[in-house]
Design a protein that fits this description.
five-stranded antiparallel sheet, elongated, OB fold (Dihydrolipoamide Acetyltransferase, E2P)
């Protein structure tokens, strides 16, 4: 594929759009920076979107768009005032936008599972003993949940055992991609933890 790369600024919403398009003008990757602070609001890939749809269906696509923004649909017309960009310039913009969307963006507040969403999960087995790192959580979805270590009691003996139902809330979303597939985790924290030595409270059902 011989990619074509350009950027164009929209004065209407003070956003600069960067496109990497295939010969058919469909966007392979898209980056956008909004406002005077140039905050990255889009860093989306057509390949990743297709992998996500194949692995996780419509729900996965909605979560991908909550993290990386919405890729343009259909062929992209290059306007007369577009500026050509090199492969290196696009790669730099892509890395900058992806880093922000992964590590610096505010908690995701859109999509079907915004930060703070309440969920009920069941503690699942892990390949490591308690206390090493966090816990997997079954959510009844085509992907796992995960409780990070800082959200668990200091003593591993006070962690919820496998099979325990726990009331949780979403903290963030984590995607990973390789050439073959996509992976997705919902990162969670317990809504309530018991005092040391006490059993975990039963979740409050809606």
């Amino acid at each position: 594929m011989v990619a074509h790369r350009f950027r164009v600024r929209s004065d209407d919403d003070e956003t600069t759009y960067w496109f990497e398009t295939a010969p058919d003008r469909w966007p392979a990757r898209q980056v956008s920076f909004a406002g005077a602070d140039r905050l990255p609001v889009t860093a989306a890939s057509l390949t990743e979107l297709a992998q996500t749809r194949e692995e996780f269906g419509l729900l996965g696509v909605q979560l991908y768009e909550a993290v990386y923004g919405v890729l343009a649909e259909g062929p992209v017309e290059e306007p007369p005032d577009a500026e050509p960009v090199t492969e290196e310039e696009f790669a730099h913009a892509w890395r900058q936008a992806r880093w922000y969307r992964h590590c610096e963006a505010p908690p995701y507040d859109s999509g079907p599972l915004p930060a703070g969403t309440r969920m009920i999960g069941e503690i699942a087995p892990t390949p490591w003993p308690p206390g090493v790192t966090g816990l997997f959580v079954g959510l009844g979805l085509p992907f796992d949940g995960f409780i990070d270590l800082p959200w668990l009691p200091r003593a591993a003996a006070d962690w919820p055992p496998v099979g325990t139902e726990v009331e949780l809330e979403v903290t963030t979303l984590r995607f990973d991609f390789d050439e073959a597939a996509a992976s997705l985790q919902i990162r969670l924290r317990p809504k309530a933890a018991p005092p040391p030595g006490e059993p975990w409270p039963r979740p409050v059902r809606p």
